[in-house]
Amino acid sequence: MKIALLGHGTIGLGVDHILKRTGGPEVTKILSLIVDDEMAGRTASSIDDIVSDPEIGLVAEVMGGVHPAYEFISKALSAGKHVVTANKAVAAAYFAELTALAEANGVSFRYTSAAGGSIPWLMNLARAKRVNPVLALSGIVNGTCNYILTRMEEDGVPFGEALSDAQRLGFAERDPAADIDGADTLRKLVLSLNVAYDTALREETLPCAGIRNITPEDLAFGRALGLKVRMLMKGGRNEDGSVYGFAEPVFLPADSPEGCVRENMNLVSYVGTESGLQRFSGYGAGRYPTAYNLVEDILDAVSGTAVPYTGHIAPVAVRNDLLMRRYYVRTSALPEVPAHIIESTDGTAAVTRPVSPADMHRLAKLLLEKDPLLFFAGMEEGEEKC
Ligand SMILES: NC(=O)c1ccc[n+]([C@@H]2O[C@H](COP(=O)([O-])OP(=O)(O)OC[C@H]3O[C@@H](n4cnc5c(N)ncnc54)[C@H](OP(=O)(O)O)[C@@H]3O)[C@@H](O)[C@H]2O)c1
Fold first, then answer.
1. Contact in structure between 167 and 209 (CB atoms under 8 Å)
2. Domains of the chain
3. Cα(358)–Cα(379) distance, rounded to whole angstroms?
4. Residue 95: other Cβ atoms inside 10 A
């Protein structure tokens, strides 16, 4: 079976190199806006050039973005080609549609590297849930945010400088909004919850906040209590059968496993009814780490062992109003925070009494209209040390 690549940038080139180095299936066609030397003799003229080629059995989409990635993946699946992708934006936005299209055409649709880069996270989540209902999942899945937070903590640099360094080192995109505002973390949460619970949640239905407004003063608040901030995805099953899920910065013990994750590393975990806590750590991004997981998906699909990550997809209720946690809120609009939810305040920031993520994110949205520089973060305690 021959392979086609859609995109020949950071990850596409990585996939190409690994397949060559390991004698994997041959890449015979590449669709890219800019033709580079390594594509010689393999340039595809269009997506139709690829989907009409009977020799090509698998398409690896590594272009990024939602459109035209969605249309190209749909064409490939409809033409009976397996598809693997590292693109969380398209996989999360069109999860139900693409999963159904793959099933209808009897081919694989795999997106392991879209959540966790090199980490075999979705693969293990899909295996685990068969015998081991997933009670909760969480993790650090955005290397850019973690790098920024580490630089701020360890080198005392302000947010803007840490972000510029992340961009210079290639961790952050030229437009870093999806990373620093939490959308990237949220999309990885959507994929994780959909796999864990055989559903098709959409990112618009889950609350999300990022680290764009974090200041050294926020970090100093945590340091005084032995806490660090990490950008986390959090999800799980409520006792009533509904599902919760949100992405937000969280203060947690500096010596907890998450608190010990430095720079652009990722750490994800789930709690299963039988297995208990399972943790996975590794590079969440980067050319070869990410391409590695794409190649694993390619080999599974080509060998016919790529079992679908979801079974029968069914709707599930989302409730973020049942879990209660305390929050740190720093805002010039502090007088607008209802007094009955404030546990303590120094006049600049407050720690709330336990409130639900649904209520906190709703309140923050209102407060942000008055104070666009507001920062808030969940507060977690934990016994576990790294
Ligand atoms: N980089 C990472 O560490 C990482 C980690 C995990 C997941 N991912 C995901 O992997 C995907 C690819 O990321 P990347 O870092 O490899 O991006 P990239 O370096 O920008 O490469 C994307 C490639 O696709 C090409 N392209 C874009 N639109 C196209 C179109 N309409 N038709 C044909 N070619 C097109 C680009 O061409 P031009 O260069 O000419 O624009 C470029 O060659 C993204 O979905 C990203 O989220 C990346």
1. no
2. 2-110 (3.40.50.720), 135-284+316-379 (3.30.360.10)
3. 15
4. 24
The yes-or-no answer on residue 2 being catalytic is no
Catalytic pick among 29, 81, 188, 228: 188
Q: pTM (2 decimals)?
A: 0.97
Q: Is 64 in the pocket of ligand 1 (CB under 6 A)?
A: yes
14 Cα nearest atom in ligand 1: 16
Q: How far is the CA of 320 from the centre of ligand 1 (A)?
A: 34
Rounded to the nearest 10°, the torsion over CA 356, 357, 359, 362 is 180
In whole angstroms, how far apart are CA 238 and each of 79, 87, 252, 321? 40, 29, 22, 10
Q: Which of 5, 32, 34, 147 best tests ligand 1's pocket when mutated (most atoms within 8 Å of CB)?
A: 32
| Nearest-5° Cα angle at 336, 350 to 245 | 65
- 381: pLDDT confidence band, cut at 50, 70 and 90? confident
Neighbouring residues of 82: CB distance < 8 A, sequence distance ≥ 6: 57, 58, 59, 107, 108, 109, 110, 301, 302, 306
What is the predicted pLDDT for the residue at 382?
Answer: 76
How does residue 309 score in pLDDT terms, banded at 50, 70 and 90?
Answer: very high
Region of 132 please: left (phi>0), alpha (psi -120 to 50) or beta: beta
Alpha helices in 84-180 (DSSP H): 88-93, 95-104, 121-131, 143-155, 159-168, 177-180
DSSP β-ladder status, 265-272 and 134-140: antiparallel
Q: Is the CB of 264 under 6 A from ligand 1?
A: no
Using an 8 Å Cβ cutoff, are 99 and 200 in contact? yes
Residue 290, ligand 1, Cβ within 6 A: yes
CA of 89 to the centre of ligand 1 (A): 12
Task: Give the count of beta carbons closer than 10 Å to the beta carbon of residue 199.
Answer: 20
My answer on whether omega of the bond before 158 falls inside 30° of 0, hence cis, is no
Cα of 37 vs its chain's centroid, Å:
32
